[in-house]
Amino acid sequence: MRPILMKGHERPLTFLKYNREGDLLFSCAKDHTPTVWFADDGERLGTYRGHNGAVWCCDVSRDSTRLVTGSADQSVKLWDVQTGTQLYTFNFNSPARSVDFSVGDKLVVITTDPFMGNPSTIQVKRIARDPADQTSDSVLTIKGPQGRINRAVWGPLNKTIISAGEDSIIRIWDAETGNLLKETDKESGHQKTISSLCMSADKSHFLTGSADKSAKLWDSRSLTLLKTYQMDRPVNAVAISPLLDHVVIGGGQEAVNVTMTDRRAGKFEAKFYHKILQDEIGGVKGHFGPINALAFNPDGRSFSSGGEDGYVRLHHFDPEYFSIRM
Amino acid sequence: MAAVESARPQAAKLRWGELEEDDAGDLDFLLPPRVVEGPDENGIKKTTEYRFDEDGNKVKVTTTTRVRKLGKARVSKKAKERRNWAKFGDAVHEDVGSRLTMVSTEEILLERPRAPGTKEEPSVSEGLGPVQPGAVLMVCRTCGKKGDHWTSKCPYKDLAQPPETFVERPSTADAASAAPGGAGRSAYVPPSMRGGGERTGTEMSRRRNDENSVRVTNLSEDTREPDLLELFRTFGPVSRVYVAIDQKTGMSRGFGFVNFVHREDAERAINKLNGYGYDNLILRVEWATPRPN
């Protein structure tokens, strides 16, 4: 396949997100400016100007009218997708790390980093239909996990919130009361910080990637470990294919090898694994730096990867991909 | 891709002296209209435009683009509308020539991992390690180990020699049990008595020569007789050289023969040149016939 290279960001990419229909791709990077691209040919549509710090995460509403972004400048901003205007800003007293719309787009879950004595928190805010009615009140605030929470997402039917972070424990919280319902234990869970988390299309299972060089597949309701995928490098980004039984995992580089690797060579690859058999299907090379973000198009026919090199690579699969047999 | 040709403006109808600089814009009617040759079956679209450049030259710009269909997408109505949205933010002033988005020049494949048991990269074994280009491979004739040390520096000097390597007849390093004095070795045979000596004339000498024949293998493709002659004549007079040539390609088949006049020259040549690096290959130099004892 011929990937489309999009160099709109000057700094490393942090997150990629497709909209529900799969025609828009939102990219977040450390350069303060989330960007939206057309997902078929990679043409840039626009940028959202306003943040003063690295943008860590974003999410788009189901009707593709609202974009929410979380940034290291201690704010979460709500944008109008079409025009790029800021609709609302939620301010916090520490950097915001992860944002996720609930099903129905009425609520958003936000995590904030531990900062200056404040512990990390998970907060739920209500999103009003009309931006004029928007308030900053938190519906729910959860404090508790030690260390940074790298990702928090809504569980199936908005009943739960699933969080994962630096303490390598995945926790499931009740979305209404904030009580801790389940958490993973040390033996079966990850051994090092969890860098990324991706829900399946129907939210019945999710994939986490960790610096312990593995990615694990979990059941969303019972938090049982379903599968483990072994990588040879710390995992920075994971994604589940909505169409086939594939997962893709992107990683970084062992700190030990940094001085020895030829970074110009485009050798960093996104590895495809069979979701059920756990076998490696193959790798897609091309990035000049560690891969920090991966996303599948909801139609499953293309995927994009964002790297430390500032490039977004958009891949449309060849017909052979759909007939891979293990 | 753009091809640019320039020609003096055809001012047949207008007197150029009457034209002023800023009338250049009005000369557009002199330019042929733009022609677009639509995407043909290979997807190549050619756009031919004409314009005036700064010096007033008429310039023809041909832009060849390949229109490539990446795939079919079933687009929802909303998505179609979004396609027509206006650009915002930093994208407002983007022109078509912006280099932000480009298709990779390389074809990237989903590389399947090699199944275990299939061919892997042949790893360098035998303790040879990667040989730097230009370096000479150190061969030790005593122990036969390559790349480690030269013969004179051989730590295994007094070990039994492997049978293939030539043993210098007058002085040998035999099995460790051999007394240094020379007892147990064959009695000294003067050169004139060895192998019969030069008793008769040329017939004998020819026969001697054949027994003084040295086979040289692992020659490079362009090695020829003069090269071998040059190489071996330092050891003594050479009566004949021969390099096997492939008649079809004209290149050396990699081996040849050198006939010395004197046997001891042949011996010395074998000792010195076996394992010698010559034209990027390591020569193998040995007796042509089964080693006469």
TrEMBL record, chain A:
Gene3D superfamilies: YVTN repeat-like/Quinoprotein amine dehydrogenase. GO terms for molecular function: RNA binding; translation initiation factor activity. One of its GO terms (cellular component) is eukaryotic translation initiation factor 3 complex, eIF3m. InterPro entries: eIF3i, WD40/YVTN_repeat-like_dom_sf, WD40_PAC1, WD40_repeat_CS, WD40_repeat_dom_sf, WD40_rpt. Its main location: cytoplasm. WD repeats lie at residues 6-47, 48-89, 142-183, 187-228, 284-314. One of its GO terms (biological process) is formation of cytoplasmic translation initiation complex. It is found in: Cytoplasm. Signal peptide: none annotated. Keywords: Cytoplasm, Initiation factor, Protein biosynthesis, Repeat, WD repeat. PANTHER family: EUKARYOTIC TRANSLATION INITIATION FACTOR 3 SUBUNIT I. Component of the eukaryotic translation initiation factor 3 (eIF-3) complex, which is involved in protein synthesis of a specialized repertoire of mRNAs and, together with other initiation factors, stimulates binding of mRNA and methionyl-tRNAi to the 40S ribosome. The eIF-3 complex specifically targets and initiates translation of a subset of mRNAs involved in cell proliferation. HAMAP family: eIF3i. Component of the eukaryotic translation initiation factor 3 (eIF-3) complex. Belongs to the eIF-3 subunit I family. This is Eukaryotic translation initiation factor 3 subunit I. It comes from Rhynchospora pubera.
TrEMBL record, chain B:
The keyword RNA-binding applies. Residues 196-213 have a biased composition (Basic and acidic residues). Residues 165-213 are annotated as: Disordered. One of its GO terms (molecular function) is RNA binding. GO terms for cellular component: eukaryotic 43S preinitiation complex; eukaryotic 48S preinitiation complex; eukaryotic translation initiation factor 3 complex. InterPro entries: eIF3_g (IPR017334), eIF3g_N (IPR024675), eIF3G_RRM (IPR034240), Nucleotide-bd_a/b_plait_sf (IPR012677), RBD_domain_sf (IPR035979), RRM_dom (IPR000504). Its main location: cytoplasm. It is found in: Cytoplasm. Keywords: Cytoplasm, Initiation factor, Protein biosynthesis, RNA-binding. Pfam families: eIF3g, RRM_1. GO terms for biological process: formation of cytoplasmic translation initiation complex. SUPFAM superfamilies: RNA-binding domain, RBD. Residues 212-290 form the RRM domain. HAMAP family: eIF3g. Component of the eukaryotic translation initiation factor 3 (eIF-3) complex. RNA-binding component of the eukaryotic translation initiation factor 3 (eIF-3) complex, which is involved in protein synthesis of a specialized repertoire of mRNAs and, together with other initiation factors, stimulates binding of mRNA and methionyl-tRNAi to the 40S ribosome. The eIF-3 complex specifically targets and initiates translation of a subset of mRNAs involved in cell proliferation. This subunit can bind 18S rRNA. Belongs to the eIF-3 subunit G family. This is Eukaryotic translation initiation factor 3 subunit G. It comes from Rhynchospora pubera. The lineage of its organism: Eukaryota, Viridiplantae, Streptophyta, Embryophyta, Tracheophyta.
